[in-house]
Amino acid sequence: MTDLAACDLAAIYPKPSPRVIAKARPGIDAHARKFIEMSPFCVLATSGTDGSVDASPRGGNPGFVHVAGPDRLLMPDRSGNNRIDSFRNIVEGSGFVHLLFFVPGIDETLRVGGRGTLTTDADLLAAMVEFGKPPRAVLSVTVAEVYFHCGKALMRSKLWSPEVKVQRSVMPSVSTVIHDQTGLGEPESQKSVEARYRTQL
Questions:
Q1: Of 19, 28, 40, 170, which is the most buried if we count CB atoms within 10 A?
Q2: Domain spanning 12-159 has what CATH number?
């Protein structure tokens, strides 16, 4: 098998249509704002100084990412595993970030790219209390590009369809998985894991 080179791609993929190019906007318009305000989940992608890439799930109540203007988003940071890979990439790497927003029931997704900075401004933290707690920090994104992805990927996956939803019991608890992988800690039932998570939201 031979790896493809850049020159090979043109033979495989036709050029995108003018409409596909034009849909990438320089800021957040009314449609993008509405989508973000409905979104309870997104994926944050960042890049490190060594060229590595990190993608991290982020969630909250719908609209947990605040639209502060056509060129600015504010994302509160909630309790996690404290690896802070994304934030290390932002403060030590290029600072470039991409966000991919999902809205349950809608197959299209929204992609937002820009440059991120972190703040612990007291007034901003106090204004973003959720689940009874202020965030530990806030990611501020200066927006450079916004566009909607077509729904084909989610349609292929049937992501929102009840018919493909699996029972949680088909996998062991994440605590058990990590114990099996590392030998560290004690395995917990999924019920115990979820109860603990609820105290840490």
A1: 28
A2: 2.30.110.10
Please, are residues 128 and 76 in contact by the beta-carbon 8 Å criterion? Answer: yes
102-134 pLDDT, tens digit per residue, is: 999 999 999 999 999 999 999 999 999 999 999
- Residues (pLDDT < 50) of the chain are none
Indicate the residue type of 97.
V
Q: Nearest-CA neighbor of 135 among 150, 155, 120, 118?
A: 120
Q: Domain-by-domain residue ranges, the chain?
A: 12-159, 166-201
**Torsion region of 175: left, alpha or beta (phi above 0 gives left; psi -120 to 50 gives alpha):** alpha
> Is 48:86 a contact under the CB 8 Å cutoff?
no
Burial of 25 (0-12, 13-18, 19+ CB in 10 A): middle
Work out the angle at residue 125's Cα, subtended by the Cα atoms of residues 123 and 90, and round it to the nearest 5 degrees: 115
